[in-house]
Amino acid sequence: MDIRALDRIIAVKPEPQTTPSLSQAITRIKARETVGDYHFTPSLRAHFQRVFDCIVHRKGQGFWVQAEYGAGKTHFLGTLIDLLIWRDADVWDMVHDAEITSDYAAALAKVKMFPVAFSLRGMGESNESDSLMRIFEEQIRESIRTFAPELDEQVKVTSPELAAH
User: Fold this and answer.
1) Of 95, 111, 148, 164, which has the highest C-beta tally within 10 A?
2) Last residue of one domain, picked from the residues 67, 87, 112
3) Per-residue pLDDT at 121
């Protein structure tokens, strides 16, 4: 067989980004691509269902995502956040899992929220100014500014804000 004929049989995909950035994955511009590239395995579907159930039933909840390097944590979080915040960008049309779409797309559209997702990679010094609590407070404040800027002045998050209030 002529080796040149392979390009008619095999489509070479571009090399994937090895360490994607969460901040890049949750932009309106990249949301459809991030969600469209996601594969919902049965175990991952269960994690999405757990998070979505908490939201639909209005149970405040925090989740910690931990896995080895390259396991897909950023893609998981990017897909999750994109499905929650970019409702007007037809992101749900990109989901390749009929069960997730039928069970949650309409129900989540009725809930107002702003998710807070961030990575602790490279954060945290041994001094008091970079405590884990301070990082949480700063990330919550940043999410409010990004996803609900009209609430920025109203919502008190950091310890100094709460003390002043």
Assistant:
1) 95
2) 112
3) 65
User: By C-alpha distance, which of 28, 68, 77 is closest to 48?
Assistant: 77
Task: Identify the sign of the CA torsion 157, 163, 164, 165.
Answer: positive
Are 85 and 114 in contact by the 8 Å Cβ rule? The answer is: yes
Final residue in a domain of this structure, among 76, 92, 112: 112
Kindly state whether residues 91 and 158 are assigned to the same domain: no
Nearest 5°: phi and psi at 42?
Answer: -55, -40
Q: Environment class of residue 127 by beta-carbon count within 10 Å: exposed (0-12), middle (13-18) or buried (19+)?
A: exposed
- Residue 114, both tokens: 């702003």
Average pLDDT rounded to a whole number, residues 41-54: 94
- For position 34, what pLDDT does the model report? 92
- Residue 161: in which H helix or E strand, if any? helix 159-164
Residue count of the chain? 165
Question: Do residues 34 and 79 share a domain?
Answer: yes
pTM comes to 0.73
DSSP code string of 68-89: -TTSSHHHHHHHHHHHHH-GGG
The whole domain housing 24 covers 18-112
